[in-house]
Design brief:
By secondary structure, the protein is mainly alpha-helical. The protein has one domain: Arc Repressor Mutant, subunit A. It is 61% helix and 11% strand. The longest helix is centred in the first third of the chain and has 19 residues. It is globular, with a radius of gyration of 16 Å. 17% of the residues are buried.
C-alpha cells in the first residue's frame, strides 16, 4: 500500500471534522436547535425548550443534544452563574441547514 502524502492526510483530517459536524446534525432536534440559534443570539436551555416546544422536548433532552453539538464544535457554551448560554459557533451553518430544508421540501414535491 502506498503512503499518503501530507496533503492527503490533511484532507482526510478535514473530511473527518466535516463528517463529525454532519453526524452531529443527524437528529431532528439538533437541527431545530441550530435553527433556533441561527440569529446569533445566546440562549439558555429553558429558552430553547420554550422555542422548540415544551410539549415536544424536555430540558434534559435539549441538554443532551446540545452536548453532542458542543462536542462536534457546532455550538459554544458560556457559563454565567448557574446558567449556560449557547450560541452557534459557525453562523453559516444555519445557511447550510436552510439549504438542506429547502432540498428536502423539493424532494417531497
Amino acid at each position: 500500500m502506498a503512503e499518503a502524502t501530507d496533503e492527503q492526510q490533511a484532507d482526510m483530517r478535514q473530511a473527518k471534522c466535516t463528517a463529525a459536524i454532519f453526524q452531529a446534525l443527524g437528529a431532528p432536534l439538533r437541527v431545530r436547535l441550530v435553527e433556533e440559534l441561527a440569529d446569533g443570539s445566546e440562549r439558555t436551555i429553558p429558552e430553547l425548550v420554550d422555542r422548540v416546544g415544551a410539549a415536544l422536548v424536555s430540558p434534559g433532552n435539549v441538554s443532551s443534544h446540545l452536548g453532542v453539538l458542543y462536542q462536534a464544535g457546532v455550538v459554544e457554551c458560556r457559563r454565567a452563574g448557574n446558567r449556560s448560554y449557547y450560541t452557534l459557533r459557525y453562523p453559516r451553518l444555519a445557511e447550510l441547514c436552510r439549504l438542506v430544508v429547502a432540498l428536502s421540501r423539493m424532494s417531497r414535491a
